[in-house]
Amino acid sequence: MIWEDIDIHAKEWVKEAGDRIRLSFEKTLNIETKSNPNDLVTNIDKEIEQFFIHKIRSVYPDHKIMGEEGFGDELKSLDGVVWLIDPIDGTMNFIHQQRNFAISIGVYENGVGQIGLIYDVVHNELYHAIRGKGAYLNENPLPLLKETSVKESIIALNATWVMENHRIDHNLMIPLVRDARGTRSYGTAALEMVFVATGRVDAYLSMRLSPWDFAAGAVIIEELGGIVTNLEGEKLNFLSKGSLFTAKPGLHQQILRDYLKKEQ
Ligand code: 2AM
Ligand code: CA
Protein backbone atom coordinates (compact mmCIF):
# COMPACT_ATOMS: atom_id res chain seq x y z
CA MET A 1 0.00 0.00 0.00
CA ILE A 2 1.42 3.39 -0.93
CA TRP A 3 0.09 5.57 1.87
CA GLU A 4 1.62 8.73 0.40
CA ASP A 5 -0.60 8.37 -2.70
CA ILE A 6 -3.72 7.84 -0.60
CA ASP A 7 -2.70 10.81 1.55
CA ILE A 8 -2.34 13.08 -1.51
CA HIS A 9 -5.83 12.15 -2.70
CA ALA A 10 -7.32 12.50 0.77
CA LYS A 11 -5.83 15.98 1.21
CA GLU A 12 -7.14 17.13 -2.17
CA TRP A 13 -10.65 15.86 -1.33
CA VAL A 14 -10.60 17.37 2.16
CA LYS A 15 -9.70 20.79 0.75
CA GLU A 16 -12.45 20.55 -1.87
CA ALA A 17 -14.94 19.52 0.81
CA GLY A 18 -13.82 22.52 2.86
CA ASP A 19 -14.58 24.83 -0.08
CA ARG A 20 -18.06 23.31 -0.32
CA ILE A 21 -18.66 23.83 3.41
CA ARG A 22 -17.50 27.46 3.22
CA LEU A 23 -19.91 28.08 0.32
CA SER A 24 -22.73 26.59 2.40
CA PHE A 25 -22.43 29.44 4.93
CA GLU A 26 -24.31 31.64 2.44
CA LYS A 27 -27.22 29.21 2.12
CA THR A 28 -29.97 28.16 4.49
CA LEU A 29 -29.24 24.93 6.33
CA ASN A 30 -31.69 22.09 6.51
CA ILE A 31 -31.41 20.84 10.12
CA GLU A 32 -32.78 17.54 11.41
CA THR A 33 -32.38 15.67 14.68
CA LYS A 34 -31.12 12.09 15.05
CA SER A 35 -31.07 10.07 18.31
CA ASN A 36 -32.29 12.99 20.48
CA PRO A 37 -33.27 16.68 20.12
CA ASN A 38 -29.63 17.80 20.64
CA ASP A 39 -28.16 15.26 18.19
CA LEU A 40 -28.18 17.31 15.00
CA VAL A 41 -27.47 16.67 11.35
CA THR A 42 -27.68 19.00 8.36
CA ASN A 43 -27.92 18.53 4.62
CA ILE A 44 -24.25 19.59 4.49
CA ASP A 45 -23.09 16.73 6.76
CA LYS A 46 -24.85 14.33 4.40
CA GLU A 47 -23.64 15.99 1.18
CA ILE A 48 -20.02 16.07 2.35
CA GLU A 49 -20.06 12.41 3.41
CA GLN A 50 -21.51 11.44 0.02
CA PHE A 51 -18.86 13.59 -1.71
CA PHE A 52 -16.06 11.65 0.04
CA ILE A 53 -17.66 8.29 -0.64
CA HIS A 54 -18.01 9.07 -4.33
CA LYS A 55 -14.33 10.15 -4.54
CA ILE A 56 -13.00 7.16 -2.57
CA ARG A 57 -15.03 4.63 -4.53
CA SER A 58 -13.92 6.09 -7.86
CA VAL A 59 -10.19 5.72 -7.05
CA TYR A 60 -10.13 2.91 -4.45
CA PRO A 61 -13.09 0.62 -5.19
CA ASP A 62 -11.77 -2.11 -2.86
CA HIS A 63 -11.49 0.17 0.20
CA LYS A 64 -14.27 0.16 2.79
CA ILE A 65 -15.89 3.22 4.34
CA MET A 66 -17.42 3.86 7.75
CA GLY A 67 -19.17 7.23 7.77
CA GLU A 68 -21.16 8.91 10.54
CA GLU A 69 -24.18 9.62 8.35
CA GLY A 70 -24.45 6.00 7.22
CA PHE A 71 -23.80 6.28 3.47
CA GLY A 72 -20.76 4.00 3.70
CA ASP A 73 -20.55 0.28 4.34
CA GLU A 74 -21.98 -1.74 7.21
CA LEU A 75 -18.74 -3.00 8.70
CA LYS A 76 -18.41 -6.10 10.85
CA SER A 77 -14.62 -6.05 10.85
CA LEU A 78 -11.73 -3.70 10.15
CA ASP A 79 -10.04 -6.09 7.72
CA GLY A 80 -8.48 -4.42 4.68
CA VAL A 81 -8.32 -0.67 4.18
CA VAL A 82 -11.08 1.24 5.95
CA TRP A 83 -11.80 4.98 5.80
CA LEU A 84 -13.45 6.33 8.98
CA ILE A 85 -15.15 9.59 8.10
CA ASP A 86 -16.84 12.32 10.05
CA PRO A 87 -17.87 14.90 7.42
CA ILE A 88 -18.51 17.53 10.12
CA ASP A 89 -17.31 16.90 13.65
CA GLY A 90 -18.96 19.47 15.90
CA THR A 91 -22.22 19.79 13.99
CA MET A 92 -23.84 21.77 16.79
CA ASN A 93 -21.02 24.33 16.57
CA PHE A 94 -21.30 24.35 12.77
CA ILE A 95 -24.99 25.25 13.05
CA HIS A 96 -24.80 27.71 15.95
CA GLN A 97 -21.36 29.26 15.46
CA GLN A 98 -20.09 28.54 11.92
CA ARG A 99 -16.75 27.71 13.58
CA ASN A 100 -15.25 25.15 15.99
CA PHE A 101 -15.94 22.22 13.69
CA ALA A 102 -13.73 20.06 11.48
CA ILE A 103 -13.64 17.35 8.86
CA SER A 104 -12.09 14.20 10.33
CA ILE A 105 -10.74 11.31 8.26
CA GLY A 106 -8.77 8.29 9.43
CA VAL A 107 -7.49 5.60 7.08
CA TYR A 108 -6.85 2.26 8.77
CA GLU A 109 -5.41 -1.03 7.54
CA ASN A 110 -6.44 -4.17 9.42
CA GLY A 111 -7.35 -1.98 12.40
CA VAL A 112 -4.06 -0.04 12.48
CA GLY A 113 -4.23 3.71 11.86
CA GLN A 114 -2.09 4.73 8.87
CA ILE A 115 -3.36 8.22 7.96
CA GLY A 116 -5.08 10.91 10.03
CA LEU A 117 -6.47 14.16 8.60
CA ILE A 118 -8.34 16.80 10.56
CA TYR A 119 -9.27 19.95 8.67
CA ASP A 120 -10.27 23.07 10.57
CA VAL A 121 -12.18 24.54 7.64
CA VAL A 122 -12.70 28.06 8.99
CA HIS A 123 -9.02 28.57 9.83
CA ASN A 124 -7.80 26.68 6.74
CA GLU A 125 -5.66 24.54 9.04
CA LEU A 126 -5.04 20.95 7.97
CA TYR A 127 -3.57 18.68 10.65
CA HIS A 128 -2.26 15.46 9.18
CA ALA A 129 -0.06 12.49 9.84
CA ILE A 130 1.08 9.34 8.11
CA ARG A 131 2.08 6.63 10.57
CA GLY A 132 5.85 6.76 11.13
CA LYS A 133 6.28 9.95 9.07
CA GLY A 134 5.53 12.67 11.67
CA ALA A 135 2.54 14.96 12.10
CA TYR A 136 2.01 18.35 10.48
CA LEU A 137 -0.07 21.50 10.66
CA ASN A 138 -0.32 22.47 6.98
CA GLU A 139 3.33 22.13 5.86
CA ASN A 140 4.88 22.63 9.29
CA PRO A 141 6.00 19.66 11.38
CA LEU A 142 4.55 19.47 14.89
CA PRO A 143 7.00 18.92 17.78
CA LEU A 144 6.86 15.80 19.95
CA LEU A 145 4.76 16.11 23.12
CA LYS A 146 6.55 16.58 26.43
CA GLU A 147 5.64 15.07 29.78
CA THR A 148 3.56 17.13 32.19
CA SER A 149 1.57 16.78 35.42
CA VAL A 150 -2.04 17.44 36.42
CA LYS A 151 -1.29 20.62 38.36
CA GLU A 152 0.31 22.20 35.26
CA SER A 153 -2.25 20.98 32.77
CA ILE A 154 -5.32 22.21 30.93
CA ILE A 155 -7.82 19.40 30.54
CA ALA A 156 -10.53 19.39 27.87
CA LEU A 157 -13.78 17.78 28.92
CA ASN A 158 -17.49 18.44 28.74
CA ALA A 159 -19.16 19.79 31.90
CA THR A 160 -21.72 16.98 31.57
CA TRP A 161 -19.19 14.50 32.97
CA VAL A 162 -18.68 16.53 36.15
CA MET A 163 -22.44 16.45 36.86
CA GLU A 164 -24.17 13.28 37.94
CA ASN A 165 -24.45 11.18 34.77
CA HIS A 166 -24.92 7.56 33.85
CA ARG A 167 -21.57 6.96 32.15
CA ILE A 168 -19.03 7.74 34.88
CA ASP A 169 -19.02 8.37 38.63
CA HIS A 170 -18.79 12.18 38.64
CA ASN A 171 -17.04 11.98 42.03
CA LEU A 172 -13.97 10.77 40.11
CA MET A 173 -14.06 13.85 37.89
CA ILE A 174 -14.39 16.49 40.62
CA PRO A 175 -10.86 16.11 42.10
CA LEU A 176 -9.36 16.08 38.58
CA VAL A 177 -11.12 19.33 37.67
CA ARG A 178 -10.09 20.85 41.01
CA ASP A 179 -6.41 19.85 40.73
CA ALA A 180 -5.87 20.80 37.07
CA ARG A 181 -4.64 24.28 36.17
CA GLY A 182 -7.75 24.74 34.05
CA THR A 183 -10.44 23.02 32.00
CA ARG A 184 -11.82 23.75 28.53
CA SER A 185 -14.70 22.43 26.45
CA TYR A 186 -14.93 22.94 22.69
CA GLY A 187 -17.70 20.58 21.57
CA THR A 188 -15.69 18.88 18.83
CA ALA A 189 -13.73 15.74 19.60
CA ALA A 190 -11.60 16.05 16.46
CA LEU A 191 -10.39 19.56 17.30
CA GLU A 192 -9.99 18.70 20.98
CA MET A 193 -7.65 15.91 19.84
CA VAL A 194 -5.82 18.39 17.61
CA PHE A 195 -5.43 20.61 20.67
CA VAL A 196 -3.80 17.70 22.53
CA ALA A 197 -1.54 17.09 19.51
CA THR A 198 -0.44 20.73 19.44
CA GLY A 199 -0.12 21.08 23.23
CA ARG A 200 -2.85 23.73 23.45
CA VAL A 201 -4.47 21.43 25.98
CA ASP A 202 -2.72 18.59 27.79
CA ALA A 203 -5.48 15.99 27.95
CA TYR A 204 -8.97 15.33 26.58
CA LEU A 205 -11.52 12.89 27.86
CA SER A 206 -14.99 11.96 26.77
CA MET A 207 -17.28 9.18 27.93
CA ARG A 208 -18.96 8.40 24.64
CA LEU A 209 -17.64 8.93 21.15
CA SER A 210 -17.84 7.04 17.88
CA PRO A 211 -14.90 5.62 15.90
CA TRP A 212 -15.12 8.40 13.27
CA ASP A 213 -14.78 11.01 16.06
CA PHE A 214 -11.35 9.77 17.17
CA ALA A 215 -9.89 7.68 14.29
CA ALA A 216 -7.94 10.55 12.71
CA GLY A 217 -6.94 12.18 16.00
CA ALA A 218 -5.51 8.93 17.33
CA VAL A 219 -3.06 8.67 14.40
CA ILE A 220 -1.94 12.29 14.79
CA ILE A 221 -1.50 12.19 18.59
CA GLU A 222 0.30 8.83 18.65
CA GLU A 223 2.67 10.09 15.99
CA LEU A 224 3.71 12.82 18.45
CA GLY A 225 4.21 10.49 21.40
CA GLY A 226 0.85 11.15 23.06
CA ILE A 227 -1.19 8.31 24.58
CA VAL A 228 -4.65 7.40 23.26
CA THR A 229 -6.84 4.88 25.11
CA ASN A 230 -10.30 4.51 26.55
CA LEU A 231 -11.11 5.62 30.12
CA GLU A 232 -9.89 2.26 31.42
CA GLY A 233 -6.50 2.77 29.79
CA GLU A 234 -7.19 0.07 27.21
CA LYS A 235 -6.69 0.11 23.42
CA LEU A 236 -9.49 1.81 21.51
CA ASN A 237 -12.08 -0.21 19.66
CA PHE A 238 -12.66 1.27 16.19
CA LEU A 239 -15.82 -0.72 15.52
CA SER A 240 -18.04 0.55 18.33
CA LYS A 241 -18.83 3.59 20.47
CA GLY A 242 -16.85 4.05 23.63
CA SER A 243 -14.94 6.37 25.92
CA LEU A 244 -11.77 8.23 24.98
CA PHE A 245 -8.89 9.40 27.13
CA THR A 246 -5.89 11.01 25.46
CA ALA A 247 -3.06 12.93 27.08
CA LYS A 248 0.60 13.79 27.00
CA PRO A 249 2.95 11.06 28.22
CA GLY A 250 3.33 11.03 32.00
CA LEU A 251 0.06 12.91 32.45
CA HIS A 252 -1.91 9.99 31.01
CA GLN A 253 -0.38 7.56 33.52
CA GLN A 254 -0.87 10.01 36.40
CA ILE A 255 -4.56 10.62 35.68
CA LEU A 256 -5.25 6.90 35.23
CA ARG A 257 -3.44 5.98 38.44
CA ASP A 258 -4.45 8.83 40.76
CA TYR A 259 -7.92 9.81 39.51
CA LEU A 260 -9.64 7.28 37.27
CA LYS A 261 -8.64 4.08 39.07
CA LYS A 262 -9.19 5.28 42.65
CA GLU A 263 -11.10 3.02 45.02
CA GLN A 264 -14.62 4.38 45.47
P1 2AM B 1 -20.49 15.23 16.01
O1 2AM B 1 -20.60 16.70 16.05
O2 2AM B 1 -19.84 14.71 14.78
O3 2AM B 1 -21.80 14.55 16.31
C1 2AM B 1 -19.29 16.93 21.17
O4 2AM B 1 -18.92 16.95 22.51
C2 2AM B 1 -18.50 15.85 20.47
O5 2AM B 1 -19.12 14.58 20.69
C3 2AM B 1 -18.48 16.02 18.99
O6 2AM B 1 -17.26 15.52 18.51
C4 2AM B 1 -19.65 15.21 18.50
O7 2AM B 1 -19.49 14.75 17.18
C5 2AM B 1 -19.62 14.05 19.47
N1 2AM B 1 -20.95 13.51 19.72
C6 2AM B 1 -22.08 14.20 19.89
N2 2AM B 1 -23.13 13.38 20.14
C7 2AM B 1 -22.64 12.13 20.11
C8 2AM B 1 -23.23 10.84 20.31
N3 2AM B 1 -24.52 10.69 20.57
N4 2AM B 1 -22.42 9.77 20.19
C9 2AM B 1 -21.12 9.92 19.91
N5 2AM B 1 -20.52 11.11 19.75
C10 2AM B 1 -21.25 12.20 19.85
CA1 CA C 1 -20.43 14.54 12.60
Automatic annotation (TrEMBL):
Record-listed E.C. numbers: 3.1.3.25
Native species: Bacillus salipaludis
Gene3D superfamilies found in the cross-reference section: 3.40.190.80, Fructose-1,6-Bisphosphatase, subunit A, domain 1
Catalytic activity: a myo-inositol phosphate + H2O = myo-inositol + phosphate
Superkingdom field: Bacteria
Class of this enzyme: hydrolase
PROSITE patterns for this protein: IMP_1 (PS00629), IMP_2 (PS00630)
Keywords of the record: Hydrolase, Magnesium, Metal-binding
Protein name as annotated: inositol-phosphate phosphatase
Pfam families: Inositol_P
